[in-house]
Write a structure and sequence with these properties.
Largest sheet: 8 strands, mixed
Order of helices and strands: HEHEHEEHEEEHEEEHEEHHEHE
Helix content: 40-55%
Strand content: 15-25%
Number of domains: 1
Number of strands: 14
Length: 291
């Protein structure tokens, strides 16, 4: 981010970041790293570097990740064709085993390793560990796709208090021992709410909420919950953006101060959002309290 700048310019950049460093020191920031924003290896390394930098300046970072493309790739390698209903993966017993193998195994441990190699201290968790995420069947047509029934946040708090970066894969369990595939945005919203996070950042492969979905210059930098409802009625928020915004609103209702939808393909977008005046993506906030 500082390449090409003189030493004096670099010092000025760091000085300008100081108020934001003070603002977020000791605060909890939850980052949802979406599957489609994870496919570029160079960008993935930059995201891990951003997270380690935040951790080093005293931000309590929780990383929640998906892995949809990796799951689909593994299914095809094993001779199974991915199937979706209303944007959700149909997950039979064999598929949920693949989901667990890919998310809690390959993807989770790869991210932990990258964070450790860049100077962070990270521990990988799945929603099964400590029954962090409990769930039940969401829709019989979808198989083992879960609807969250409880968040047991203790293991995450313990890791944060000990100075680790929790890295969480979004699979869940029930009291009968069944495993469920969970929507990552939904899990991130509920975990952020349970932690009382300062911010939830949702990284995806879109710039944010656009008034014209084909024109990035129409990015809406900030909206309230009420404005989000209006934009949905107007059709500005539509398609795949609807469930993302619903998760943002749910997080706000659960006590998260601000939620950001941002493009994970933009280099250092996390630092731009948290440590500069410019920000990145669309910020969703609660409605102002009326006098």
């Amino acid at each position: 981010m500082l390449n090409g700048l003189s030493n004096a310019d670099r010092a000025e950049v760091l000085t300008q970041a100081l108020p934001y460093i003070k603002q977020y020191n000791g605060k909890t920031v939850v980052i949802k790293y979406g599957g489609n924003a994870m496919v570029n290896e160079t960008l993935k390394l930059q995201v891990m570097e951003d997270i380690v930098l935040l951790w080093l300046i005293g931000v309590k970072v929780v990383l929640i990740h998906g892995g949809g493309p990796e799951i689909s790739e593994m299914m095809q390698r094993l001779g199974k064709q991915p199937e979706f209903i209303d944007g959700l993966r149909v997950t039979d017993k064999e598929t949920v085993d693949i989901v667990q193998m890919v998310l809690a195994g390959k993807v989770n441990k790869t991210l932990v390793n990258l964070l450790e190699n860049r100077g962070g201290r990270a521990v990988g968790l799945s929603g099964i560990d400590g029954h962090l995420i409990e769930a039940r069947v969401k829709d019989r047509r979808l198989g083992y796709v879960g609807e969250i029934t409880a968040i047991n946040i203790g293991p995450v708090r313990d890791l944060l208090e000990r100075g680790y970066i929790p890295v969480i894969s979004t699979i869940a369990c029930d009291r009968e021992g069944n495993t469920y595939n969970i929507n990552g945005d939904t899990a991130a919203a509920q975990i952020a709410g349970a932690l009382g996070a300062e911010r939830l950042i949702t990284m995806t492969d879109i710039a944010g909420i656009l008034r014209d979905k084909d024109d990035i210059s129409t990015l809406i930098p900030e909206i309230t919950v009420s404005e989000a409802d209006n934009l949905r009625r107007e059709g500005v928020i539509s398609g795949g953006m609807i469930p993302k915004v619903e998760c943002c609103i749910e997080a706000i209702k659960q006590g998260v101060r601000h939620v950001i939808i941002m493009d994970g393909r933009v280099p250092h977008s996390i630092l731009m959002e948290l440590l500069t005046d410019e920000g990145a993506g669309t910020m969703v906030s609660g409605d102002p309290e009326r006098e």
